[in-house]
Amino acid sequence: MAVSSAPGQLAAAADDLSAGEAILRRQAQRESAARTYARSLPVVPVRARGMTVEGADGRRYLDCLSGAGTLALGHNHPVVLEAVRRVLDSGAPLHVLDMATPVKDAFTTALFETLPRELAEHGRIQFCGPAGTDAVEAAIKLARTATGRGGLLAFSGAYHGMTAAALGATGDTDMRATVDADVRVTRLPYPYDYRCPFGTGGERGAELSARWTAHLLDDPKGGVQPPAAMLLEPVQGEGGVIPPPDSWMRRMREITASRGIPLIADEVQTGVGRTGTFWAVERSGIVPDVMVMSKAIGGSLPLAVIVYRDDLDVWRPGAHAGTFRGNQLAMAAGTATLRHVRENALQVRAATIGARMLSRLRGLAAHHACVGDVRGRGLMIGVELVDTAAEPDEFGAVPAAPLLAARVQQEALRRGLIIELGGRHASVVRLLPPLTITDEQAEAVLDRLGAAIEAAAASGPREAPGGAG
């Protein structure tokens, strides 16, 4: 952003820059080595509205991270702010554990109005605590209690959270290295068209994945612990923005239903219009037995729930609890968000503008060999970067390029664009803009990302930034 040459304004800008740098230094000194976003995105946000974030240095950025998908309506949307103010001005209690309140009743009503009809008519809700990982834990615990079985079916590339059972179901072995929580998890192949584990890709690869799953479950010598549930993401997020074929989703529903295995859909990142339908499972037409929800349902504030078939509701009072499961402000913000998305059909908008962005990104890929694949659903988009100097593997896939991806992220930040990385080797540029993104903002995102890729590809190999901060 241009800065005026007036002496007073220059001095103020310098003070802001100095203050921002000081905050970043103190963060590095005080916070744990586990911090992540602060390392690759050294921005000190001080103001935000919609898709725009302003840093302490006065620079403005287009935010394509959106709180890892939390901000369906972007930063500080008026309907969210108004909902929070109404609760604050009403004198209503802000902390009520799991007691009934008008705010909570409005939230559950708004949520159930969005769910697949069968689940809404025969569902129960459990408020789990502040984060998606808490809801995943609750879903696994519920399934194990209801079935009396201890095993769990999960998928390669999965990400479900950082607490014990959720981490056990996550596919990243480095993340699980210090947690002995996956001894009863059976890992299954997730369809990954660009890097198909069967070397075929497409519908054939997805069908082989389904056949392998059914065979393993029915093989008396297969070594599978009797599963309490199958846990899957309708679109893998941290795994690299991988959407499976709808036919595969339907096969997973058939396989689990015919064997009496509850199907848990982790909609923490995919829900509330993100993938072009209100819930990602709607695209394939399946109805899971349990849905895990967080992020956008709280309207930018911490909230996590599971909704499940009423015949699974075998918990005794107090069997699952959490001090902060009654977050009234989050419920009010969530109600406003759910209703605004639904009433304005923002999921349809996400599908339309997402398809347009995918089309342009695929055009970009035609001019840059380092762009190996472009994929996504709605406004959940991934651009996989590859090392064109390396030899393809035995299936013809070009190796991932994590250092190039890190350079792209930094070049994008220099151009005022905040993006995230993910995928098996952190080589997938992930775009998660708010559903309120305008046509002009979408064009600006694509322009800045294209320029960042071109600059990063031209800069040659060097160490990835952000490692010491």
TrEMBL record:
The protein's annotated pathway: Amine and polyamine biosynthesis; ectoine biosynthesis; L-ectoine from L-aspartate 4-semialdehyde: step 1/3
Domain of life: Bacteria
Cofactors that this protein relies on: pyridoxal 5'-phosphate
Known EC number: 2.6.1.76
Keywords: Aminotransferase, Pyridoxal phosphate, Transferase
Pfam families documented for this protein: Aminotran_3
Family matches, as CDD domains: OAT_like
PROSITE patterns: AA_TRANSFER_CLASS_3
InterPro entries tied to this protein: Aminotrans_3, Aminotrans_3_PPA_site, Dat, PyrdxlP-dep_Trfase, PyrdxlP-dep_Trfase_major, PyrdxlP-dep_Trfase_small
Sample GO molecular function, one term: pyridoxal phosphate binding
Family matches, as PANTHER family: DIAMINOBUTYRATE--2-OXOGLUTARATE AMINOTRANSFERASE
Family classification: Belongs to the class-III pyridoxal-phosphate-dependent aminotransferase family.
Protein name: Diaminobutyrate--2-oxoglutarate transaminase
Source organism (scientific name): Actinacidiphila rubida
Biological classification of the source: Bacteria, Bacillati, Actinomycetota, Actinomycetes, Kitasatosporales
